[in-house]
Amino acid sequence: LRYVDAQDYDVVARFEALAWHAYARLPSVYGLSGILRGDQDAMSVELPQHNDVAVSVPHVFRQALEFSELSGDVAIYRNDDAWRIETDALAFEGSTPGKSYGGELRGSVDVPDDGRRPGLDVAALVTHAEVQASHLFWPVTSMPHPPVAWPARGLHLAPTPPGPGAYRRSP
Hints:
With 171 residues, the protein is mostly beta strands.
């Protein structure tokens, strides 16, 4: 670490099993390991293979999303009026028993300086998944009960074909 002030610093840090608790709308994360490199203008985070991580978003998902693999590179840098967090490829492998899934995530999150909600532009390629794994990703606060209950009753444990998915939300 080299620190002069908030506008002049450099950092290189290795972190192991990093964790924090959920606060307000921020998720909790447990078990994150990697290397952080950066300065006042930009940072990069390298997440190694075989990174066991759990992410809990209590007001969105029913249970924590547990990963036996969460690896890749993440860049964090300034735009004109926001911080951008982006990845070209973040590999993931779910580790919830009986709910296997895996694939790759790409995209960005823009966190505006003025406090507006973040803008999301993400895409996931699911390379394999069991239908029961889809239940992990159904939001409990933004999806009405009938659209969640119907597939929960009708879907049975089965493999699903690989495929892409995308999500975009402006701030």
